[in-house]
Amino acid sequence: MTRRVVITGAGVVSSIGNGRSAFWDALEAGRSGASRIEVERVGEVTVCLSPQDDGVEQLVGRREARRMDRSARIAVVAAAQALEDAGGDPIDPVRTGAVIANVHGGADTLDRAALALFSEGLDRVSPFTVPLGLTNAPVAAVMRVNGFRGPSSTVATACAAATDAIGIAAMLIRAGRADAILAGGAEAPVSPLVVAGYRRLGALSTSERRPAEASRPFDRSRDGFVIAEGAGVILLEDRDHALARGARILGEVGGYGSSSDAGHITDPDETGEGPACAIRIAISEAGIEPRQIGHVNAHATSTPAGDIAEARAIVAAGLGHAAVSATKSLHGHTLGAAGGIEAIAALMPLVRGIIPATANLDDPDPEPPLDHVRETRSAHIEAAISNSFGFGGHNAAVVLLRAD
Predict the structure, then answer these.
(1) Model pTM score
(2) Residues whose CB is less than 8 angstroms from the CB of residue 100 and which lie 6 or more positions away in sequence, other chains included
C-alpha cells in the first residue's frame, strides 16, 4: 500500500510576514514587502528583505548562530516554525530528515571572502568560508540544530529547487526511508555579486514605479522580477505516522511532476509544453483530473518571456478554468526558496478558504485568457497546484489536496 504524505506544519521567513499565519494575513491583505536599497557596487535596487533580526540566536545561541550564513539562519528559523506548527508528540530523530533547496549558497559569506582575499590577502579569508558558503549549509544547519539523523539533501535546480525538494521528500517518505521530512528552501541572495549578475542578465525589474508596484506578474508592463530573500519549510509526514502522534493535518501532497525543456540556458520553452508536462505528471500522480484543480499558484516571476510561457503551459495542461494567482507580486522572487514559500501560499485556499490575489495586475496579457485573481476571493478548493520553473529548463509542480 502506498504511503500517503501529509503536511502537518509550515514555517515562513519572508518580507511580508514570519510564520504561517502572519504570512497568510499579509497575502490576504495584499501587503507588499518591497523596498529600495543601495547595494554596494551596484546601486539602487528594488528588493524584498525579511527582518534582519531573524531570531536564530534565541533558538540556538550566539555561538552556533555565528556559524551560519544568512541563508542557513533563516532555514533554521522556518524549520523551527514548521515543527512547532505541527504539534503532536515528538518525532523520532532517527526517522526524520530534511530536503532544503538552495541555489546561491552563502552569498554574503562568499562576497566578503572574495573582497577580503583581493583587498587584504589570503590570511584575511575566514576559515569558515567554505562550510558557510556551500549550498548544503541550510540543510546541514537544520539537521544539526534538531539532531535529525534521517535522509538529508540539498536541491539546486535553480528556481524550481524548492518544489523539487518537496517532491523528493514526498518520494522518500512513500518509499519508507523516513516517517517525517522537513522540505522547502532558503535563500539570501541580496549580495553585490548575485544582484549584479541578475541585473547584467536583464532579469531584474528596472521600473521607476514605487517599490510595491515593481513586480507585475502577467501584466503587459512587466519588466523583470524583484529579488528577495526568505525561507519556506513544510513538515511532511506519513499520514498514519502523523495521526498516531496526534498531529493536525493541513493538507496532503497528492502528486509531484518534473520535466526539462532541454533548451536555452535561461529562456523558457516559449510554447509552454515543457512546464505543461511537469504539471500533467503532478496531476496524474495525484489521481485526479485537471478539472478538479481549483487554484494555480503560478511561478510567474514578472519577466516578459517567463509569464507568457507559463500562461500557455497552464492552458495546455487543462487548467484554463482554474483561479490563478502569483504571490511574488507581494513577497518577491526568492529564487531557490520560491517553491517552499509558495507551496505554503497554495495551502491557504485549502485551509483558510481564501485565494490570494496577484498585485499590480492592471493590464493582463489577453492571450491566453486565464482566470486571474485580481482581488482576494473566498473559495472552497479541494485541490491546488504550485508551479516552479528555473534557468536551465527545470520545471516542477506539486499538487496539494485538502485534508480529509
Answers:
(1) 0.97
(2) 75, 79, 138, 139, 142, 154, 155, 165, 182, 183, 184, 185, 186, 233
